[in-house]
């Protein structure tokens, strides 16, 4: 295990003399589960190995209480517990719990600890491995300690045992003690080999997982493109591709990317244009750090630019895999390796152009606004070269946008501001040190261009409102101006008096806030933070904390480098200073640039350190302890503001914030809980945080705080559950800790807080995915309350309410409950909305309700089916798919479904046209709808005229089982009209269907067997099936327990056999 813990496990950074902790990541969770299975599993070790006494005990800080070890086999000694069993040599107990320290001396007792821990066993295992980073050395001795390079300890130990056996065999009087020692050594060797095997298994699994997470980079992309260029040419018999080129301009940036900087923010590396021999239109491909995917090609609105929107959701890790999926010719040529490799004598001229451009980035930066599609022939490249040379003489210095500028100010600006601030020697020194701190480290400069945030950037673009020159200013404005003058030129006493006087003003008024800024007060206040006078710092921070609630003041503080200084103050020993600095950072870090500045100057790590405080629920709290708790609260406030950035969330996790937040979550003080839960719910969207919230026992605390009387705290708890409840384990924990009742209680409380309603309904929606939770919601009459919220609510509430009703309606009794509560009509009315997320949920809910015939009557009367059909025209693919799925039960349960469908003008043509979609979910839903439509003969005739047969036949090469199932069902239904069976054969749809029988999904087998049975009624199709090897898998399926599958398989085999007999009869007659 040592090698895995050192090389593969992910650790947080070691801080303040403490060793790092295991990060909450999926990789670490897999490793811990593997170790847990070994420790608990009976096959991992023999009973003798379980009883083997360790050389040194495994000791760690535990959350278990002495009462957990009550019963036979344990002896209580006051606040300690020891095992009755002891080691034979040292007479030490094999298990000892003293205070919060637990020690074990054998695997048997380690297994007992895990059994006693129950749901907390993962926490105990994590703590054990964190405090014993080389457990094998403790268990078997230092000779087996983890080392770098070759480890020969096992071989040496084996040689030692062999020699002892030889010596023992030569001795006439065999000592019993030596024999026992030899047996013990054999056990040690056996256990070491098993631990080594476990280590290798975990390392191999880690390598596979890490390999899967590897992201693309420009070097990999260029390598793949270079290889594919060698197999491209005009002759389709000799080459796999017609051509592959980079799209757009030929400029290569210093980081190797060809995409524009504003697209590099999204991870784009470059864009490719690929022409395959058997695909009519070129493929326009985006090479992103996440993989390769298609884009929509040249934009119709902006000449020379791409439409970066994705036509489908497919992402490929390799370019070759992507082209194989899109081009049958390419796949065949690659698999047969029947192509020529083109030897390039000359390097492409565009690479030389890119190198020239690197020498003069300013001149070529202008070309970012003029994209020319790159052509592979030399004439086009030379024209681009000439155009570039024409542009070069006109060199104008291009200033970067303010958004991308470094936080440091220009030298001229610094010296200009220094003239105003340099009043006394003390302030001059402070100004100099502050300017030094404002310089952005070189390593972080690239970070400016890759920020991700969940918060809108309205503040970033806020228009500054300054009073007009002739406007009458209040008397406070002039009084503040005088006080700022005292701040600039006074001594220490005058400065403190001026600061106190400033605090006497109402600093919550915008007039006073802007007055301080307009007369140069912000510069002075920020300078004061660099002085050595604690009182001056405290006074300045108190003022900055109040006025930083203003949007414009926040931006000004960030521009003047105030954040960097406040981050430095977080290291100060004075706790009042730490509190004020953290609270001010919390106010300022409301926009992206400020959050980025905090991270780049090490603020996240320091804020996380503030969370580490004394026990919160101690019976006796001294003033020192209370101050420590207040520091933690202020740190949580600042982290809450910073956590709206994805990179900050990752930085917080690596700094070890999760266990500290889990500890603070057990506080009983609402003013502490609100920022802690707020931070958790902000971070809960990240998988690593969701995993930690589940495994660290935070769900129990979130559920407990749902019962609080504070609505803001309730809202954040519900929002955290909403984001985490995608996982089944989380949903089960919410139910086990009694969280469903307070969630429903929030709906019945009659609150007007829309944010609270949105969070509560969202949590109910996600929790109702589990059938066990649905039963509890039925008992709590949640459906009636949810239906009552379908009217006069904002869209963010409606999305969650309708989503919850859609999940609850999967249970048949609930469909009737929704109808009785009057929910069908408002649901149908919501189909006319424009919110895409709401439309997706509404169509799902209406589709579930339509499974009930009585509900279908109401939906039909309200013209709901027509509204669903109209949503097939929606541009959003999720809406299209969910609408098509909802149409299926509507057709199945409508009284006169055929006539209803025909009444929709252009409806059948519309649904057939959706077979051209590239989204697999849309295709599967449309195929399911066509299978239902084709039950009516007249409708089948109409869709046949609209070309449904060739469109379905084109889709038969898919590998998606969901699409295969419904496609085969649609083909089976469509065979019942005219010459459709023959047409499917001519369109070469039969042989691909035979491959569906290799699927592991029995539903695919059933629908495929039906389709093959229908197609086998045509002799030509029988021959094709037989040649494709259909008989052998069908014979196996005749023995299936599914009667439909049996019947269809037997029918198909029967048709093939009858054709064979007829052929033999004709031959001999």
From TrEMBL:
Classification via SUPFAM superfamilies: ARM repeat
Record Pfam families: Arm
Location of region: Disordered: 359-470
Repeat region (ARM), residues: 520-562, 561-603, 738-764, 781-823, 906-948, 988-1021
Coiled-coil ranges (or none): 158-192
Keywords: Coiled coil
UniProt cross-references to InterPro entries, sorted A to Z: ARM-like (IPR011989), ARM-type_fold (IPR016024), Armadillo (IPR000225)
Stretches with biased composition (Basic and acidic residues): 380-402
Listed name of the protein: Armadillo repeat-containing protein 4
